[in-house]
Design brief:
Beta-Lactamase; 16 strands; 15 helices
Length: 473
């Protein structure tokens, strides 16, 4: 093999390349004339290595995470990898089933920074040492030409938006969504600042600030905070009434009154986009103190981003509602069997008292006046019992007219006094309750403690109802 000819051919093709993809493609084509290997060039784009050119293969990895496989290892370390037997390298990515050896070298810019890799894989016998020097020299020429052509191709704005959309979809909290939204808006729009206004029952509010807000954002937030919720609401209303729009902030063209707080902060350019529905959504404001000229494509991308933001926020709010429904009684708002089971599982022997509560004569209310009246009784009792408990005590509804209070006490007598206070609170609503009290014994299961509290409750029923009974220790 004439390795000098390989280098000459590649060099000749590189001098004619007018773009980075062309330089990569012609490098691969020139090398492929001298070896049957699978050849590819992968360049750094954000946090991934993108395949810019490759010879034919059944599968070509379009992008590879920057630390994945032999190519990721070479890129991360800046050190070439010579692998005579790919089966023994744990980082090998099987592109072809017949590959036996691989040679991967970093592509460096003139400053010595890795900007990608040149990867060559063989499926037959090969002497790797001569090829190592050849591939390294080819990669050096390719790196120099890429730098001369402006460096690796950057992400398009659409690609950036898709990447940020993935981050929004995986956000765990509303704060995470808002932070991801403002980062995406700045990067995709190229404007310096973004804030999110979110509507709610108490009016519009500002989304959280990033960890290191810029000077313009600090001024914007100060102005909006001073202007009050009404000013935020007017900006949100304007975005929903007129739709997405932008301003150039040019001299001689005064801003609308709704945007006065922004201009006082120094905003000259603004993109305002509605987020979500008008009755529950908000607005995304993307701003700059420079007088820029946002185009319609930029505004459209911000609209797409706003749509993804709302989908993510709505998903989190739906999940929150479902969790609340799963952990609380929809009628009274009290916790029910799920959280109650978790709470009593942590009961402390001799300290955690369970107060089993049953509404006296509740079946008669339902039979005489109907279930709607019965529901009103339960809601009224729930509020009265909650009001009679101390701070930190917990009340659960575990059945139709069955409640349990879980309280921490120092002595059984303290639990009885609180149970009597609950009974008195019920009387003030015009109803009566029977209460059984039990404290866990050492080694006793929570279910067994609850059964003893129920037995104490039934003892009250047998004695005429409207009372309290303490289970034997």
């Amino acid at each position: 093999m004439d390795h000098q000819r390989v280098i000459r051919d590649v060099t000749a093709r590189l001098t004619m390349a007018s773009s980075v993809p062309e330089a990569c493609r012609w490098t691969v084509d020139a090398m492929s004339q001298h070896t049957p290997a699978t050849i590819s060039v992968l360049l750094d784009v954000h946090d991934r290595l993108r395949c810019v050119a490759a010879t034919g293969a059944w599968q070509v990895f379009a992008t590879v995470p920057a630390r994945t496989g032999i190519v990721g290892r070479v890129f991360a370390t800046g050190t070439a990898a010579v692998v005579p037997d790919v089966t023994v390298d744990p980082d090998y990515l099987p592109v072809r089933p017949d590959v036996t050896a691989e040679l991967c070298v970093p592509v460096l810019d003139p400053a010595g920074r890795a900007i990608g890799v040149l990867d060559v894989q063989w499926s037959g016998p090969v002497d790797l040492e001569p090829w190592r020097d050849t591939v390294q020299r080819v990669a050096a020429r390719l790196g120099t030409r890429i730098a001369a052509l402006g460096g690796p191709p950057a992400e398009s704005r659409s690609e950036k938006l898709l990447r940020h959309a993935a981050a929004l979809s995986s956000a765990a909290t509303e704060g995470d969504v808002m932070g991801a939204a403002t980062r995406a808006a700045r990067e995709v729009s190229t404007l310096s600042t973004a804030v999110l206004l979110i509507g709610g029952p108490d009016g519009a509010r500002l989304g959280p600030s990033p960890l290191t807000p810029g000077d313009l954002e600090i001024r914007i937030r100060a102005e909006l905070a001073g202007a009050g919720p009404g000013a935020l609401g007017r900006m949100v209303d304007r975005a929903h009434r007129y739709g997405a729009g932008y301003t150039l902030g040019e001299v001689g063209h005064p801003p609308t009154e709704d945007y006065r707080p922004l201009t006082r902060a120094g905003v000259r350019s603004l993109i305002a986009v509605p987020v979500g529905p008008s009755d529950a959504g908000g607005a995304l404001l993307v701003a700059d103190e420079r007088a820029l000229h946002p185009d319609s494509t930029t505004v459209s991308l911000m609209e797409l981003l706003a749509g993804q933001v709302w989908i993510s926020l709505d998903r989190l709010r739906t999940l929150t509602r479902l969790r609340e429904q799963a952990s609380s009684d929809p009628l009274t708002g009290l916790g029910h069997t799920g959280p109650f089971g978790q709470r009593i599982a942590a009961a402390k022997p001799g300290r955690t008292a369970l107060l089993a509560i049953d509404v006296d004569g509740f079946k008669t209310v339902n039979d005489t006046y109907g279930h709607q009246a019965g529901d009103q009784v339960l809601v009224g009792l729930a509020r009265a019992l909650e009001g009679a408990l101390r701070h930190g005590d917990e009340l659960y509804r575990i059945g139709g007219d069955e409640f349990v209070a879980v309280i921490e006490v120092n002595r059984p007598e303290e639990a009885v006094r609180i149970a009597e206070r609950l009974a008195e609170a019920a009387r003030r609503t015009g109803r009566t309750i029977s209460v059984g009290v039990a404290l866990p014994r050492p080694g006793e299961t929570p279910d067994r403690t609850l059964r003893r509290a129920d037995q104490a409750l039934y003892a009250v029923k047998r004695q005429g109802r409207d009372g309290v009974h303490l289970a034997a220790a």
